Amino acid sequence: MATRRPTEIKLNRMEARIRLIRALNRIAFMAMCLSVGFLVVATAFPQRRNLEKLETKLALAQIREQDILAEKEYHTIEHQALREDPKFLELHARDRLDYYKPGEKILKIQREP
Predict the structure, then answer these.
(1) How many distinct structural domains can be found in the chain?
(2) What number of H helices and E strands is found in the chain?
């Protein structure tokens, strides 16, 4: 049996310590990366909720805008018809003033509010 020299024993111990330190460094680096990743994700959640709220408000505003544009178009067409079409003007005036011609039957349908 060959006896080991004290320098070999010290060298083997030092190499073992270096391997241990490298492994601990890798574990510490991974833990740091995970904590930074969780931090980024945790800060993104409130912003995501805020974005969803803003998108909902935008969708409601777009629906209201479409309704208003449709109502504007209806009133524009009605105004043009009142100015240019005498039959429509007569029909609108008779409906508003509840006039009817003799022998004419009028059916009125009331809308529910």
Answers:
(1) 1
(2) 2, 0
The single-letter code of the amino acid at 82 is L
Neighbours of 88 (CB within 10 A): 14
Coil/strand/helix, residue 22: helix
Tell whether 88 is covered by a domain: yes
Give the position of tokens 């010290």.
10
Low-confidence ranges of the chain (pLDDT < 50): 1
Q: Report yes or no on 53 lying in a domain.
A: yes
| Whole-number pLDDT of residue 40 | 86
Tens-place pLDDT, residues 60-75: 999 999 999 999 999 9
Determine, yes or no, domain membership for 102.
Answer: no
**What span, in angstroms and rounded, lies between the C-alpha atoms of 10 and 15?**
9
Q: 3-state DSSP call for residue 15?
A: helix
Tokens of 81: 């018809």
Domain range enclosing 15? 6-97
The tokens for 17 are: 């310590």
Structure confidence at residue 56 (pLDDT): 96
70 belongs to a structural domain:
yes
